[in-house]
Amino acid sequence: MIPELLSDLKYRLRALFRRGEMEHELDDEMRFHIEREAEKYRAAGMSPEEARRRAHVAFGGVDVVKEESRDARGLSYLESIIQDLRYAIRALRRNPGFTVGVMVTLALGIGANTAMFSVVDRLLFRSPPLLRDPDQVHRIYFASMDRGTEDARSGTEYTRYLDMRRWTSDFSELAAFSVRDLAVGAGTDTREGRVATISASLFDMFDAKPVVGRFFTAEEDTVPIGAMVAVLGYGYWQTNYGGRSDVLGQPIEVGSSKYTIIGVAPRNFIAFSEEGPPAVFVPITAYAGAFRAGPQLSNYYTRYNWSWLEILARRKPGITLPQAEADLSRAYRLSWDTEQSLQHTLPPVEIARPHAIAAPVQSERGPNQSKLAKVATWVSSVAAIVLLIACANVANLMLARSIRRRREIAVRLALGVSKGRLVRQLLTESLLLAASGGGLGLIVGHWGGALIRALVLPDHGAGHTLSDHRTLGFALAISLAAGVITGMAPIFQVRRTDLSDSLKAGMREGVYRRSRARTGLLLLQAVLSVVLLVGAGLFVRSLRNVEAVRLGYDVDPILYIYPNTRSLKLSDDAAAATRRQLVETARSLPGVESAALGLTVPFWDTWTEKLYVTGIDSVGRLGSFTIQGVSPEYFATMGTRILRGRGITAEDRKDTPRVVVLSRAMATTLWPGQEALGQCLRMNSDTMPCITVVGIAEDIKQNSITEDRGLHYYLPIEQFHPEAAVVFARMKGDAAGQAESIRRQLQPLMPGDSYLTATPMHEIVDPNVRSWQLGATMFLVFGGLALVLAGIGLYSVIAYDVAQRTHELGVRIALGAGVSNVVRVVVGDGLRFILIGILLGSGLALWAGRLIEPLLYAVSPRDPLVFGVVTGALLLAAVLALLLPALRATRVDPTVALRSE
Predict the structure, then answer these.
(1) Which of 111, 232, 585, 611 places its Cα 20 to 30 Å from the Cα of 534?
(2) Exposed/middle/buried for 121, CB within 10 Å: 0-12, 13-18, 19+?
(3) Strand ranges (DSSP E) for 265-337?
(4) Do 287 and 424 share a structural domain?
(5) Distance separating alpha carbons of residues 701 and 559, to the nearest angstrom
(6) What are phi and psi of 382, to 5 degrees?
(7) What is the pLDDT of residue 177?
(8) What is the pLDDT of residues 339-395, one digit of tens each?
(9) What is the rounded end-to-end Cα distance, in angstroms, of the chain?
(10) Which run of H or of E encompasses 174?
(11) Residues 574 and 624 grouped into a single domain
């Protein structure tokens, strides 16, 4: 049986790839049989000519026999497809301008969608590599009511994690993790690295085996402090240890603790670190036990006062999502009751209504989807619209081409070619063009995706569009879809072809008639272009409004310098002295204009204390008031203006009366309609000494660019935790370019293994405007691309119309029509389409504006300026697209036009 199958397969492959040789053999075989038959007739006494004739008659039609033989090979359908493909290639090569234009148009649309897919897939859909059954694994969020609104968060306490393990039953695995940047290495080799502190159970969620050594076990991940062991990330192992296997047993310093290397993770294992592969994996209890050492802090696994980790859970087989969430919520309510028994400030379960949410593992898909993810999703829709415009453009071109080929198609139909075969051939041409455009689109998507990821996901590392099977599959799918969509218009034209009319029409198809399909496609392009350009205008205005927001401090020239004392134990006085030495040395360095000490960093951390004001029952009900401890040079260094009174001075020392500078918003909130200068503020208790308000500063943005109320106050750093201060330096030039130089010059001042990090402030602030940057950039790029495609589409339609109306225009000119009249006719037709498209598109944009309004800032989705600019841009593009066909129309020679009829 098998030998026969192999022989049949060999025969069919030979028929497919060595067709010429088999055709030659078939001819030889036919001649052989005819000669044998002729010999019989000659032996019966017939002449050679008569014998050959009778042999042919007896044998039947030679061509029919050959076709039957070919059909027996079972490859006739495939051979016909190959013929269609060869014919399509020849036809496209005869028209290179059309072919290149279609390929580039589709490449732009396909490339735009491929680029956006690579970003959105990574943000919202791609599971961590090597994760087993990702649909069964969930990131757990804890929700409760707070002041009438539901708040859901994924960050929680280790004690809560233990509660979930104890009181849930519908999950086969629960794991905890936290990813943070810590010092890795010792001495001059110390660098900030991404460290994953994970429970041992997290390894069980992945199909991952260590390259060298082993992973840590549950016995090494127990409270109060786990085993001090570490697993290296594959990239860190290759870069810092050269991929050597003798790393096992070597010590490695991570943060403030020393660990022993016991293994190396596989190449693609990143756990749930969404911002790049970790350098090191350590037991979560080892990190927490060492970090929270001491009698006051060692209870991290019994109290609910440190929210620092996230929980992952895998459902058991057969457990539905609602069942799993019900199980989690029941456990969370028990945990809430336990926490309330320890901290009586929590509201009861009946009021807080705590419940748990089992969300997808991608953090951007959680209950609190970020603005960046929402904008990225919208931009993906915009990319799809660009592809739709490109398909409409190509369909218009192909429809015009099929109209020009109408007589050719009619002749082929008259010769017996079926309409089905013609449809298949036209579809082959369309798919071939789409495949070529898709290949170019992959290159466009590769480079475009890299640029978008640099803007949106700078910490996620480079993507590999050309080698990623998900992205390649997506590009293939939309290329096929584009091929089918663009091939529909000429296919419908073929199916409606009237054979007799087409043959009688000759080279001229009678009176000029505009194709409704082409007109509809042109209007579709105009409408969608209006929508995209309005979106671009709205996001550009939003970005400009955000960039114009006064943060209350400068960003570009500021360098944030953080002294990390690591495992070194310094007294408060020694730590404060080190920081004073750092800031004094920084002021003397070249390129530094001024330097100051501060306590917190905008957009990174905040500090709050309970406040008391005479006449106000609860200051906390008025809002969250954040603190900044500052040295006298702070306001000048940061560029924060003092509006009234004075700032902090050198006379505000530890042994002098306590003073405070308030933001204008805080002063107005606490003493509305009164002068805040000289007022009394108390901290921590209403019996504490009075802190006198000596100055009013401008409002700053501490946590949010658009929503921060600016309730902020400043205390002299010498009076408020000088041992915890950080350094801010104002540079004379680019802060980013001088960061490493400043760090190196200050590093020798750090004692022991402690070290410095230097971060430009713009790197801290920029992520908070990234969603508007993405929206403005991509809407503008895609809107401009849509405008160009719409202009090309308008040009192609009008240029084709002018070619079809040669006789009519010749008659007009012969009857005395001037150049202006001809231009008016041509341009008027095109502008009529565009004006209708602008009206329809504006209506659609007004409706869609309501959907994107939450993503905008300080601009109405019905902004008349945006709509006016878009209308002007489209009209200008239309006029430019119409000029060339209009000028060509004025050059029509009436004698030639009339003679051609």
Answers:
(1) 111
(2) middle
(3) 280-283, 310-315
(4) no
(5) 17
(6) -65, -40
(7) 96
(8) 988 877 688 888 889 999 999 999 888 887 778 888 888 888 889 999 999 988 888
(9) 70
(10) strand 171-184
(11) yes
**Locus of tokens 């904008």:** 375
Which pLDDT belongs to residue 12?
A: 52
Would 53 be classed as within a structural domain?
yes
237 and 262 part of one domain: yes
Structure tokens at 58: 């007896």
Domain of 249 in residue numbering reads as 134-361
| H helix runs in 549-647, sequence order | 572-588, 634-638
Q: Rounded to the nearest 5°, which phi and psi values hold at 651?
A: -75, -10
Q: How would you classify residue 320: left for phi > 0, otherwise alpha for psi between -120 and 50, otherwise beta?
A: beta
Tens digits of per-residue pLDDT, 380-434? 888 999 999 998 888 888 877 776 666 666 666 666 667 777 777 778 888 899 9
Beta bridge partners of 758: 561
Quick one: which of 217, 218, 213 has its CA closest to 252? 213
Q: Identify whether residues 211 and 307 lie together within a single domain.
A: yes
Is the predicted pLDDT of residue 499 greater than 70, yes or no? no
Distance CA 311, CA 138 (A): 9
Total structural domains within the chain: 4
Contact 164, 140 (CB under 8 A): yes
Q: Which of 743, 389, 716, 447 is nearest to 585 (CA)?
A: 743
3-state DSSP call for residue 314? strand
How many contiguous H segments (helices) and E segments (strands) does the chain have?
Answer: 27, 22
Residue 683 lies in a domain: yes
Q: Domain check: are 82 and 31 in the same one? A: no
The number of angstroms, rounded, from the C-alpha of 176 to the middle of its chain's C-alpha atoms is: 27
Tell me if 238 sits within 8 A of 227, measured CB to CB: no
592-to-585, 639, 731, 736 alpha-carbon distances in Å: 10, 14, 5, 13
Closest to 670 in 3D by CA, of 632, 720, 630, 617: 617
State which H helix or E strand residue 45 sits in. Answer: none
CA distance 625 to 623: 6
The closest of 826, 827, 833 to 521, measured between CA atoms, is: 833
How are beta strands 680-683 and 712-716 bridged, if at all?
unpaired
| CA distance readout (Å), 835 to 391, 519, 757, 847 | 22, 13, 58, 19
At 36 the pLDDT is 77
Coil, helix or strand at residue 818: coil
Rounded to a whole number of angstroms, the CA Rg of the chain reads 38
Q: Residue 16 burial (CB < 10 Å; 0-12/13-18/19+)? A: middle
Are the C-beta atoms of residues 177 and 196 closer than 8 Å to each other?
yes
For residues 747 and 598, membership in a common domain is answered with yes
Asked if residue 834 is part of any domain, the answer here is no
The continuous run of DSSP H or E covering 305 comes out as none
- 608-651 pLDDT, tens digit each: 888 999 989 889 889 889 999 999 999 999 999 999 999 999 99
703-746 confidence digits (pLDDT tens)? 889 888 899 999 999 999 999 999 999 999 889 899 999 999 99
Q: Which amino acid is at 750?
A: M
SS3 173: strand
Q: Are residues 254 and 379 in the same domain?
A: no
Classify residue 70: in a domain, yes or no.
yes
Residue with tokens 């159970």: 201
Q: Percentages helix, strand, coil for the chain, rounded to the nearest 5?
A: 55, 15, 30
CA distance 114 to 102: 18
Using DSSP's 3-state secondary structure scheme, residue 50 falls into helix
> Among 510, 533, 567, where does a domain finish?
510
Which range, 68-77, 554-563, 882-891, has the best average confidence (pLDDT)?
554-563
Residue where one domain finishes, among candidates 307, 326, 361: 361
- Check whether residue 139 and residue 281 sit in a common domain: yes
Give the percent of the chain with pLDDT over 90. 46
How far is the C-alpha of 571 from the C-alpha of 33, rounded, in Å? 109
Of 526, 729, 566, which is closest to residue 637 (Cα–Cα)? 729
